């Protein structure tokens, strides 16, 4: 057969890349990013890099998850925990974003050897990185007890990714090393908005107190033979700040007002009590959300309110009839810090409104006022409040010193005068003496407190709870003192003597009314029409007879309590609930991780 | 380095520059013998800046051959006897490369930006650690083997085409093996998976013209149907995580719970398996009367996802597949005495869809209480309406992938649909009339797009716009007038 070729051959080589024939044409490098080899050159680069750490240290202005809270409308972790709702299947954390904070820190430390310059300055930034690593692992131990320790960035084929937990002892000692290095190498001076030597010493003292007391009280981790050295560190670190830090309790003789100035001021730069503080300002677009402390999703508990001493220094709970005192009576003759923490009848409301402020029984009545920005220019909306906030303040250092000494059994009257009594003096409260009588209410709250000076130790705990209320420490305190059982108590609000109108502004005229239901307002039938018209009404049941979110403990009188606590009882399982489960998704990927204490 | 993004000091702007380069050669070789044997060879050799130097180039050849059987002498008697004019058999192999990764994904670049804190009275710049990068990264290679045929009958009034193909995707660019949390950064995209797709397509068309009442009547009908399914053939997933690909996984499969209905009373609630593990965090993982009741498939006394692995998937099962199957289309047209009409239908024969958590258009107040109540939300549980569609009104249970947001049988939507994409009716004025006006042709028409459809989704959502937030397809009506001079 004769070949007949219609199309013979079309063969084409076409060079598309006619724009350039250079070999490097296909090498494209990022122009708005930098690489590690180019970046880490000098101490200035370390400063720029370490700026990125500061998001890991933010001020706290609430005590959610603790017994300082009467009711939290949203779902707090502890609320879920004590109702049996938390499990490894639904818990969060331990994810890449969380560990990414550690990776960020270790990434700088991995590159430290290529940085040239003044070694002291380089060590200062190494100290800052190790401060943040200590902070990171402090929080990790608190949650998980044993955690794997990593001091370098992990590559995708690093077998260490799949290792199990290191023992708490090893990790705690590593934290101790990091924070000790930090406090020895970070510079002591500055604006205190960055980490200083004193901030590092404060964190070291806080950590050491936590670890020391945790080991002392938590026999389940079998380290009761090795806690004293941590208490000693807490004592020496806090003593060093007291001796050389140049800080002071802010006291201009105005008692409660001085206390308020720490939490609701436009500028804390000059406040000698601030070891470290967070700066907020409208010009730079950095605001906080402190207005949510009042009337938002939580309120404070009767349990906290009862803790404040009377101005004569004796416990309120020893006063006959204290349990039936009205909201308008409980603030009278009390530690001034009470009215600076809990909304009191004299409070004029947001922005110093002329109308008196009405508390709401739906939140229990004891609304938080500490941290609330008082003026309109400081309070402009969601994440748009511009009060400066404390991160570490000197008062905590004094309390750490006193508590560590009391736990060590070495505290003296001089120690009390140099610590707790400075706080008492600010608010013009009587000094605490070594001979204080044991308060039975405190003794019942902390039944496991040990030692010959229990009465003083418990008063130091009271002082800490009162002074540091709503600063985010209370939950950790409950945990390290091993008194988790207080978390199973249903917290309550104010006392309501009877159904009907109630004065909450102190003028003798009812402002709010607690009523059976919209169908039964008989309890206010006898009130004058103009008073009735002005009442804010709250019902125990809706028009269909359904329960509302709160009830009264005696039915038609008693303390405000919350239906959720009644219908879904709270149970604290020892020691399991002092710890948290690792998410199941992580134990599947790394089976070497073991859940602790029955999780 | 000269970029605003790398400047220090006060900065409120930002800059992003991305560039990438490709270079390639290709060839094509065509050979046709006697219109009977057709051979075509193609090839590309491509390089891209997106991959590291050693992995930068890829060669992607393809070849196709066809045999026009009807031109064979021996076939002619048979062809004539059945009216066959065209019988063409085709076979091809082709490879293509994908470079679907970001421009510098093998270079560990450190980004920067103003931090969120005020330090020393300023908001300084912070530099961030780089993401993780793959140590080797190269082209994803997609090879397709196709067999097909074209048939024409009765002066090509009847045309049939069919194809069957298998596609192998090697070194698919996707997230690599899942690493533990302490890795601290998202796993980089690597050539992590192989994928095998099998599919087929079938088309049949009929066109004819005849004279009716002294006018030409023409009409045509084209039908098409296609389907494909894809399976993972390689992926490093030693634990069989359901959150990752695994060997044997069909692309699009939906794992979910089996909904048994609602808790109608306290007794039912008390005696049912513990559902804590699938509850919503915002409601404390608690369930009450009127809430969803899930089946304890493995009978272990609790409803959960187990370890969310193949070996231990708790009470989950494959409840559906979100890939569209059986794409079909029908195109009809006809004309007579100046009138013309066209109808174009398109649809998908099978597809499942689970509304993503937080989809306000579907979940409404079940996602968040402050969003709009959707009309279909009104069909919800109360003691008086125990068989409603939605559970009792309870916010936040469809916000995350738990409770209502967790895929489950009751709310799995049948996303198949049929849609009339186009309807056109026209009339062309008779030439006798238009010629007088010295106009070639005058046609008036009415055309409508997306006028009619059949959908089975509970909410009024566009079945073609379920993936992502796109505007719904609009119904369009147009009237027109054409003049040809």
Short description:
The complex is a heterodimer of chains A (599) and B (485). With 599 residues, chain A is mainly alpha-helical.
Describe the 3D structure.
The complex is a heterodimer of chains A (599) and B (485). Chain A is mostly helical. Chain A has a domain at 394-488. Helices cover 34% and strands 7% of the residues of chain A. Chain A contains 20 helices and eleven strands. A three-stranded antiparallel sheet of chain A has the order 6-11-10. In chain A, strands 7-8-9 form a three-stranded mixed sheet, with no helix packed on it. Chain B is mainly beta. Chain B is 5% helix and 44% strand. Chain B has a 13-stranded antiparallel sheet. Chains A and B meet through strand 1, helix 1, helix 2, helix 4 and helix 20 of A and strand 1 and strand 6 of B. Strand 1 of chain A pairs antiparallel with strand 1 of chain B.
Low-confidence stretches of chain A: 1-20
The first-to-last residue Cα distance of chain B is 63 Å
Rg for CA atoms of chain A:
29 Å
Radius of gyration of chain B: 30 Å
- Shape of chain B from CA axes? globular
Q: How many helical stretches of chain A?
A: 20
Mean pLDDT metric of chain B: 92
What strand line-up does the widest sheet of chain B have?
Answer: 1-2-3-4-7-8-9-10-15-16-19-20-21
Structural class of chain A: mainly alpha
Low-confidence stretches of chain B: none
- Considering residues with a beta carbon less than 8 A from a beta carbon on another chain, report the largest interface and each chain's count: A-B, 83 and 86 residues
> What structural class do helix, strand and pairing data of chain B support?
mainly beta
- Report the sheet with the most strands of chain B, covering strand number, pairing sense and barrel closure: 13 strands, antiparallel
How large is the share of residues in beta strands of chain B?
35-45%
Task: Tally the helices of chain B.
Answer: 4
Share in β-strands of chain A? 5-15%
* Termini gap of chain A: 84 Å
Order of helices and strands of chain B: EEEHEEEEEEEEEHEEEEEHEEHEE
Biggest beta sheet attributes of chain A:
3 strands, antiparallel
DSSP, total strands of chain B? 21
């Amino acid at each position: 057969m004769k070949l007949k070729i219609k199309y013979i051959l079309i063969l084409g080589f076409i060079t598309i890349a006619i724009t350039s024939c250079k070999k490097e044409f296909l090498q494209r490098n990022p122009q708005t990013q930098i690489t590690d080899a180019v970046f880490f050159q000098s101490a200035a680069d370390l400063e720029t890099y370490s700026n990125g750490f500061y998001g890991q240290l933010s001020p706290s202005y609430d005590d959610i998850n603790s017994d300082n809270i009467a009711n939290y409308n949203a779902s707090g972790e502890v609320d879920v925990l004590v109702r049996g709702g938390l499990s490894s299947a639904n818990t969060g954390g331990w994810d890449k974003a969380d560990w990414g904070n550690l990776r960020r820190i270790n990434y700088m430390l991995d590159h430290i050897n290529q940085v040239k310059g003044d070694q002291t300055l380089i060590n200062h930034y190494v100290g800052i990185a190790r401060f943040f690593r200590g902070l990171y692992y402090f929080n990790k131990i608190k949650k998980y007890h044993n955690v794997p320790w990593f001091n370098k960035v992990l590559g995708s084929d690093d077998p260490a990714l799949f290792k199990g937990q290191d023992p708490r002892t090893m990790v705690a000692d590593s934290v101790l090393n990091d924070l000790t290095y930090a406090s020895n190498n970070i510079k002591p001076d500055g604006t205190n908005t960055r980490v200083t030597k004193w901030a590092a010493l404060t964190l070291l003292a806080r950590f050491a107190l936590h670890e020391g007391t945790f080991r002392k009280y938590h026999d389940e981790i079998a380290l009761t033979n090795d806690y004293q050295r941590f208490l000693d560190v807490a004592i020496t670190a806090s003593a060093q700040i007291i001796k050389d830090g140049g800080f002071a309790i802010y006291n201009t003789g105005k008692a409660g007002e001085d206390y308020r100035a720490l939490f609701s001021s436009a500028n804390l730069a000059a406040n000698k009590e601030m070891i470290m503080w967070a700066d907020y300002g409208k010009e730079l677009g950095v605001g906080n959300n402190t207005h949510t402390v009042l009337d938002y999703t939580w309120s404070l508990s009767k349990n906290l309110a009862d803790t404040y001493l009377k101005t004569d220094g004796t416990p309120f709970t020893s006063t006959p009839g204290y349990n039936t005192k009205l909201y308008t009576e409980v603030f009278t003759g009390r530690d001034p810090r009470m009215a600076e923490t809990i909304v009191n009848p004299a409070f004029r409301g947001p922005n110093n409104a002329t109308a008196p402020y009405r508390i709401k029984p739906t939140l229990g009545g004891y609304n938080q006022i500490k941290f609330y920005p008082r003026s309109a220019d400081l309070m402009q909306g969601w994440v748009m409040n511009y009060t400066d906030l404390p991160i570490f303040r000197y008062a905590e250092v004094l309390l750490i010193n006193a508590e560590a000494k009391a736990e060590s059994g070495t505290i003296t009257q001089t120690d009390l005068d140099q610590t707790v009594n400075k706080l008492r003096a600010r608010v013009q409260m009587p000094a605490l003496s070594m001979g204080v009588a044991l308060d039975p209410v405190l003794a019942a709250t902390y039944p496991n407190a040990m030692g010959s000076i229990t009465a003083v130790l418990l008063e130091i705990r009271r002082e800490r709870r009162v002074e540091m209320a709503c600063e985010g420490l209370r939950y950790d305190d409950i945990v390290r003192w091993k008194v988790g059982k207080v978390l199973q108590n249903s917290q309550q609000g104010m006392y309501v003597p009877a159904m009907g109108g109630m004065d909450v502004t102190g003028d003798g005229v009812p402002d709010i009314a607690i009523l059976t239901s919209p169908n039964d307002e008989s309890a206010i039938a006898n009130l004058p029409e103009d008073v009735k018209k002005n009442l804010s009404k709250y019902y125990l049941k809706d028009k269909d007879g359904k329960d509302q979110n709160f009830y009264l403990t005696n039915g038609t009188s008693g303390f405000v309590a919350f239906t959720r606590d009644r219908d879904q009882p709270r149970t604290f399982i020892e020691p399991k609930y002092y710890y948290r489960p690792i998410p199941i998704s992580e134990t599947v990927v790394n089976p070497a991780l073991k859940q602790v204490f029955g999780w | 380095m000269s970029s605003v993004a790398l400047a220090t000091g006060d900065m409120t702007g930002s800059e992003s520059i991305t560039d990438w380069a490709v270079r390639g050669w290709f060839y094509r070789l065509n050979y046709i013998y006697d219109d009977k044997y057709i051979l075509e060879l193609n090839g590309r050799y491509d390089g891209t800046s997106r991959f590291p130097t050693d992995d930068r180039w890829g060669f992607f050849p393809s070849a196709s051959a066809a045999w026009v059987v009807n031109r064979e002498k021996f076939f002619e008697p048979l062809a004539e006897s059945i009216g066959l004019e065209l019988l063409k058999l085709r076979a091809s192999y082709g490879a293509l490369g994908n470079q679907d990764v970001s421009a510098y994904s093998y270079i560990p670049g450190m980004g920067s930006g103003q931090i969120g804190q005020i330090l020393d009275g300023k908001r300084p710049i912070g530099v961030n650690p780089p993401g993780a990068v793959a140590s080797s990264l190269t082209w994803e290679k997609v090879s397709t083997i196709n067999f097909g045929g074209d048939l024409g009958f009765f002066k090509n009034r009847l045309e049939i085409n069919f194809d069957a193909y298998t596609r192998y995707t090697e070194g698919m660019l996707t997230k690599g093996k899942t690493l533990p949390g302490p890795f601290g950064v998202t796993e980089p995209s690597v050539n992590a998976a192989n994928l095998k797709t099998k599919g087929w397509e079938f088309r049949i068309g009929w066109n004819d013209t005849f004279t009716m009442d002294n006018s030409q009547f023409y009409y045509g009908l084209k039908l098409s149907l296609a389907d494909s399914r894809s399976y993972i053939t390689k992926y490093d997933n030693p634990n069989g995580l359901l959150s990752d690909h695994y060997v044997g996984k069909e692309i699009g499969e939906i794992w979910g719970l089996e909904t048994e209905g609602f808790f109608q009373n306290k007794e039912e609630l008390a005696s049912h398996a513990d559902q804590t593990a699938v509850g919503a965090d915002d409601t404390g993982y608690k369930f009450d009367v009127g809430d969803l009741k899930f089946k304890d498939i493995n009978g272990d006394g609790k409803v959960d996802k187990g370890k969310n692995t193949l070996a231990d998937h708790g009470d989950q099962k494959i409840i559906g597949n979100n890939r569209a199957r059986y794409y079909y289309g029908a195109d009809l047209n006809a004309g007579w005495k100046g009138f013309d009409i066209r109808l174009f239908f398109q649809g998908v024969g099978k597809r499942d869809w689970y509304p993503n958590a937080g989809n306000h258009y579907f979940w409404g107040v079940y996602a968040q209480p402050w969003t709009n109540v959707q009309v279909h939300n009104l069909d919800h549980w109360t003691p008086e309406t125990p068989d409603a569609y939605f559970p009792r009104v309870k916010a936040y249970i469809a916000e995350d992938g738990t409770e209502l947001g967790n895929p489950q049988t009751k709310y799995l939507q049948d996303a198949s649909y049929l849609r009339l994409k186009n309807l056109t009716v026209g009339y062309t004025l008779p030439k006798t009339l238009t010629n007088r006006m010295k106009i070639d042709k005058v046609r008036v028409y009415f055309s409508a797009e997306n006028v009619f459809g059949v959908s089975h989704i509970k909410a009024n959502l566009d079945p073609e716009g379920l993936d992502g937030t796109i505007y719904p397809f609009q119904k369009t009506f147009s009237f027109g007038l054409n003049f040809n001079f």
